[in-house]
Specification:
This protein has 546 residues and is an alpha+beta fold. Helix content is 26%, strand content 20%. Helix 9 packs antiparallel against helix 11 and helix 15 packs antiparallel against helix 16. The longest helix has 18 residues.
Length: 546
């Protein structure tokens, strides 16, 4: 079929109510909605899930993550790590081509080589690019014959040097930031490369209409195959819409115009789910539901650096008050009534369920204990809340119901909480610049290692430079954190991680709320769409079944 005719059919399809396949054409299109919109398809800026999902369909890196969080081959079919854990050597496949594009001779995509990774990594590190992923290469060792910390040894061999052993490094290279891009396309399109992406992935871009739809079509030259040797992907295309209203998005899913719904939202939570968190039996014949631990810890954060005037003059500088808040509400009840038990109440530390270092036995968190909360409130100098001024908690609208639940629970102890709802960009800016004493936060893993969570409390990562938004600092914690970076023994690492997790509970710079679960509602005729603890959207093995 000619490409123009194919695109025409796709346009007809995404504006119709057909179910995945055209009646007279063997074309399958997977449809999902991105309510938050997509601003760029440049992997250098794929920081948020809304960007990571489409970028992962368009680009590949040296390695990738499977559904069990194992690092597996991608463009590199194998690799070697030196005995001291500091030199990584990757051997590249010789059958990976960039998407066809006018920037290449004759419009045909060329073979990927190791120098393309040199170019892509230099681009990430270039301050003028201002990539949000520059940090993934901060551990490189530069010098001698490798001034950048990486080097193409020949067309198919790429080597990386890091300054010291760091066991999560291979996992970091699975992130979209580390994907390969062609220099010809970046230089030709310039700042518009994010709207004209050229990658190596299972799909390539064909149509992007702002705030309306984005269409990705099958890459016929994609290099991966399934276990039986069949070429991937199975789908002919992906159609992404940008409906902002959650109620409208839900109705589109019910009407069969979307194949997939991600997460739970108050708009449709009680329609699709039973009180116990199972799929409503009324929908069993139409949809399937997948729920599993998702590497995301939802929490409330306190600004705790007493060298800051805003903290020094705050009631929340007192650890007794922060601990009283932690003991002062029922996380189990909160999950039951507000989340239909989707997720696990955070009764352990900051490290979420789904990681090997998660340990409920060795890291005891805060359970609901109003008597202990009252005792701590008295120790802070506010018996029954007497003399305690209202505490301002800032959140986004998505978590208003949870914050109001905590507000009500704490009020029964004499702790008055006022809630301020902020917009996303303004909210993030205030947190990064230490302008909020008490705020709602979440941390979704960048890579599947507990170090990623514990880095939020290392003093060297204080915001706005790093992700330590509470401005927590403790020299003992820092020494444990640095020791963990140098260790590659799983048992020793787990002990170090557990010790740091306990310190965070004991110091109370945060109020862990719950360890999230990913929830996917999928049309029954969709096969091969699995779930994973990183909540990655992997569509290359998805197919329609009649």
């Amino acid at each position: 079929m000619k490409i123009a005719a194919f695109i025409f059919l796709l346009l007809v399809f995404v504006t119709s109510c057909d179910h995945g396949k055209f009646p007279d054409q063997d074309l399958s299109v997977f449809r999902y909605n991105e309510s938050k919109g997509i601003s760029t398809l440049d992997p250098a800026f794929a920081r948020e899930q809304k960007l990571i999902w489409p970028v992962n369909q368009l680009f590949n890196g040296l390695v990738q993550m499977d559904d069990s969080l194992n690092v597996v081959p991608c463009i590199a079919f194998r690799w070697e790590i030196s005995e001291d854990g500091r030199i990584y050597t990757f051997y590249l496949r010789r059958d990976v081509f960039f998407h066809d594009n006018k920037v290449f001779k004759g419009g045909e995509g060329r073979l990927v080589n190791a120098r393309d990774f040199e170019y892509s990594f230099r681009r990430i590190m270039d301050p003028s690019v201002a990539s949000t992923g520059r940090w993934i290469l901060e551990r490189l060792e530069k010098g001698g014959d490798h001034p950048d910390g990486f080097k193409a040894l020949d067309d198919s061999t790429f080597r990386i040097w890091i300054s010291q052993r760091f066991s999560p490094f291979l996992g970091i290279l699975t992130m979209p930031y580390a994907c390969v891009v062609p220099g010809e396309a970046v230089e030709y399109y310039g700042e518009e490369f994010g709207r004209n992406p050229v990658g190596t992935g299972p799909f390539c871009i064909k149509i992007w209409r702002e705030d309306e739809k984005l269409i990705l079509i099958k890459n016929p030259d994609y290099f991966e195959t399934d276990d039986e040797g069949n070429k991937l992907p199975y789908l002919d295309a992906i159609a992404i819409t940008f409906i902002k209203d959650k109620q409208s998005e839900f109705l589109e899913f019910l009407n069969g115009n979307l194949d997939f719904l991600n997460g739970i939202h108050p708009v449709y939570k009680d329609v699709l789910l039973t009180p116990s968190g199972k799929l409503n039996p009324d929908f069993h014949d139409r949809f399937s539901m997948i729920s599993r631990p998702f590497l995301n810890t939802e929490y409330l954060g306190f600004l705790v650096d007493t060298s800051l005037k805003i903290v020094k003059e705050s009631q929340l500088a007192d650890i007794n008050l922060r601990m009283a808040i932690n003991y002062g509400f029922d996380r189990i009840k909160m999950m039951k009534y507000l989340r239909n038990n989707i997720g696990q109440p955070a009764l352990s530390g900051f490290i979420p369920e789904g990681l090997p270092a998660f340990d409920q036995e060795n890291v005891k968190g805060y359970s609901y204990n109003p008597d202990t909360a009252r005792y701590l409130l008295s120790r802070a100098g506010y018996p029954e809340g007497a003399g305690l001024s209202p505490i301002l908690l800032t959140t986004t609208s998505d978590y208003l119901d949870i914050c109001e639940f905590i507000q009500f629970e704490l009020s029964r102890l004499g702790i008055a909480v006022n809630i301020e709802v902020a917009t996303g960009a303004s909210f993030r800016n205030k947190i990064a610049n230490s302008n909020l004493l008490f705020f709602r936060g979440s941390w979704i893993a960048d890579y599947p290692d507990a170090e990623n969570y514990l880095s939020l409390f290392y003093s060297g990562n204080k915001s706005p430079v790093g992700p330590n938004y509470t401005q927590y600092s403790d020299p003992v914690y820092d020494s444990l954190y640095l020791a963990a970076l140098r260790s590659d023994d799983p048992d020793s690492l787990k002990m170090l991680y557990n010790s740091m997790d306990r310190m965070i509970i004991d110091s109370a710079p945060v109020v862990p709320l719950f360890y999230d679960y990913s929830v996917r509602f999928i049309s029954r005729n969709i096969q091969g769409l699995n779930s994973n603890p990183m909540n990655l959207l992997i569509l290359k093995k998805v197919k329609y079944e009649n």
